[in-house]
Amino acid sequence: MPRVSSRYEGLGVGFAPYLQPPGPGVVRWTVGEPGFDTPNEIIEAAIKSLQEGRTKYTRGAGTIELCQAVADYLQRHHGIEASAEDIVVTPGAKQAVLYSFLITTMPGDEAILLAPSWASYEPMLEFIGAVPVHVRVKFDNFHPDIEAIRAAVTDKTRMILINSPCNPTGAVFTPEEIQSILDIAIEHDLWIVSDEIYARMVWADWPHVSPATLPGGKERTIVVNGWSKSWAMTGMRLGFLTGPPEVVKAAVKSQANSASHVPTFVMEAARVALECDESVEGFNREYLKRRELMLEGLSSLPGLRVPEPEGAFYIFAEVTETGMSDIEFADGALEVGVQLIPASLISGGEGFIRVSYATDEEAIREGLRRLRTWLIEE
Ligand SMILES: Cc1ncc(COP(=O)(O)O)c(C=O)c1O
Description:
The protein is of the alpha/beta class. It has helices at residues 40-51, 64-78, 92-104, 121-127, 146-152, 175-187, 245-256, 264-273, 277-299, 326-335, 361-377, and strands at residues 27-28, 87-90, 110-115, 131-136, 157-162, 191-195, 221-226, 239-242, 314-318, 338-339, 341-342, 352-356.
């Protein structure tokens, strides 16, 4: 039998082993997926699109109407200047991240990740032969350690990845921190890939700031975003990127030579979604309630340090003082019927667990009851 090419050898799959559906009755705090149905207007737009026959090939970067709607959305919500021609709609933000890595690095080039970071960045960089360089964030609040980033830059560094609000830590970097990272990028002529998929979920007192809106930022920043999180559209596989013209040209080539485009009929659903501000805000009100519930519940458990999450829908809690490793904690939790993620699966996550409070309220209450019985009453 022929051999599978060696590029798959040792390649990680992030949190995938812990994202499998657990056995019956297990409460699931693992998946970074909104516990809401996709808003009805969006579903209806998809159905109507199908009925109207939008089932054929179309413009690779997305219909011009959709790309214009994305450009308007970026301006309206995040102050990012872009025209329809500057947008490439991709099969999920994940694919946009992959294109961004292909565009900014060659094999052997280094990319700085702020550890702990989203579990897919590292294997994705390794997949294309680039070298992830993990720079730890500050231990107490998960904010970037600017001097450590500066010290990690070498003559092979090509890119710094920012993901704020952050999966898995829930940190929202301050405008000053974003400026400082941009200053380093300007000083060393580096790209910034800014994964802003949680940009609408900010619970901190300071706003989300995209480096693309700061002086000198636009020409070196690739902004990645998508519909999965804020519109509860994970399964529709819709994301996008925007950046300087050469980046957009390269992203169009990446897509032309791989996915071609996202399904034509979902493009209209994506366009309609961008007008559904009420749904996004309604989900956010619910997330805030769930965040309080989870924060309060986890903080009352012995041995857990639970920093306050500033954005996204994750809590990153330290379990070292329970006397268990994060793997032991996750295994023990699963035994009592709570599935959560041990963060030592990713660089810089040792001693921490990640829980998602995007799940429904009853799952949070029930999971907390089980953990309380396990850690306090047994
Ligand atoms: C930080 C981050 N970026 C990108 C993605 C990918 O999102 P999508 O479903 O749009 O591919 C995720 C999903 O978990 C994420 O957490």
